[in-house]
Amino acid sequence: MEPNVVSKPTFTIVGMKYRGKPEGDEIPDLWREFNPRIREIKYLTPSDESYGVMDNYDEKTGQFDYVSAVEVSKVVDVPEGMMSWDIPANKYATLEFEFSEIRQAFDNIYRWIPESGNERAPGPEFEYYPPEFDPDDPDSRMQIYIPIKLKHQ
Q1: Which domain holds residue 67?
Q2: Residue range 114-133: average pLDDT?
């Protein structure tokens, strides 16, 4: 599993946020609460893609923000209990894998970044779930994107 480096432009998401240190089903529960409410969001991009966006990690507590989200073309009338977030343009180390391998994929990409001479850049990282993703299928494919600063910039 060797990551690729890609550039991604700024995009905007709307979704529901969890702040904490997940120790059980907090994140799957957030998705179960969010998915039925997606139709409340205005100006969805025309695909069925979704994102799990993470940022604001606190090293002392292990807590971070996690947002179950979809991309929007414009932010108008954000539904109650949801938030919008502009994800900045960045270069990302990205890796595609089967859902059942999510922990291994994060370990691999975080090991690869310094081994490749690159650095983790500030900003949110995210899980990308393509339209065909099925959370009940461990073989379903997804991607992670970690912002990086290339060694030769």
Answers
A1: 4-149
A2: 95
Is the Cα torsion angle 102, 149, 14, 43 positive or negative in sign?
negative
List residues bridging with 119 in a β-sheet. Answer: 149
Beta strands in the chain (DSSP E): 4-8, 11-20, 50-55, 64-72, 83-87, 90-98, 119-120, 125-129, 141-149
Tokens of 56: 């604001």
Gyration radius of the chain over CA positions? 15
The CATH number given to whatever domain includes residue 50 is: 3.20.80.10
- Report the alpha-carbon distance of residue 51 to residue 114 in Å, rounded: 25
pLDDT at site 93: 96
How crowded is residue 25: how many other Cβ atoms within 10 Å of its Cβ?
10
Total count of domains within the chain: 1
Give the predicted TM-score (pTM) of the model. 0.93
Q: Phi-psi bin for 123: left (phi > 0), alpha (psi -120 to 50), beta?
A: left
